[in-house]
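Progress narrative, Year 2. Work on LPS export ABC transporter permease LptG from Qipengyuania aurantiaca advanced from sequence curation to structure prediction during this period.
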Amino acid sequence: MQLDFFPSATLTKYLAKLFVVRILAVLVMLVLVLMMLDLLSNSGKILAVEGNGQGELLTYASLRVPQLIQRFLPYSVLLATLISLVTLNQNSEVIAMKAAGLSAHQVLAPLLLTALVVGGVSFVFNERVVTRATATLKAWDAAEWGPVPEESSVRANVYLADGSNVLTAAQLTGSGDAIRMRNVTWYRRSPEGTIVEQVDAERATYAGPGWRLENIERFEVAAAASSTGDSLVVGEGLTPDQIDLAKIDPEAVPFWELGPQIEAFEDAGRRTGEMRAKWWHKLSGPLSSFLMPLLGAVAAFGLARSGQLFVRALIGMALGFAYFVVDNAALAMGSFGGYPPLLAAWAPFFLFALIGETVLIRTEE
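Result:
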């Protein structure tokens, strides 16, 4: 029986159902509370735009909720693990399972399997729903909560260099010769790097070569004079191919599209350490749900009447939150080049899997 991780189908279904219900309950509670706080913080900015109302607030909520689900699903699995295991321990169900001959791993196996399924569902949800919501929300924020852009492949806050000159766009849509920019600013700079002229424009399109700015407002620094005009062509050294590689937001690009884009960056000789680390983290992040039952397992065992159940629950919570801290720190180090991308994304997962397994074996097996 020690090698059979699922000796009872009835017990497996019971524990899996118990675990799923608690994960959903904790997740709904966290998302509702955090969404209300988020609306309190941003609703004033959204409603300050003329024409915005309740519909725009609902649109914002529909775009923000997927992000909250992505971020707090692993926390929900951790809290649901502790709630489930503490309840089972208090009701002596763990003692009954161990008295029937089940090992600690067999008690946890249904929870681990459920957490693995949750991680798979989370991965699909993140790459199919969250990436699109993130791209739209960032583009809407860049448009200062104006009309939600309907175009695909919207990028926000793009920064482009043409020699010493700089072209920035709050919003960029399309690709190739069909690229369109909105809220554009052109900074003409001297070889020493000081700004000589600033040109603001409502939009910009490809002029082949260069980019045609429309409805411009020019400001010459030396003369401290401003003027307006219909159009101006700038940035003749900027090609559509360069702009296509100007900026990739890993949070807004699905896993299967991000890989080829990173390879294109590498072929162009660009740094890809940060993007590669986040690409790997798209796998290790959702899979962190699998770790939570293992890290919280310390709360399942030990006698509830011994008075140490609360301490065990705190230890499980501390292990779980320590993983998130180390994971974020490793990802940050990978972004700055301190760790190789693969190590930055996967080292915390395997480290805490080893810690959780060691604690479980040393204390219960």
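The longest strand covers residues 195-206. The CA atoms of residues 70 and 330 lie 19 Å apart.
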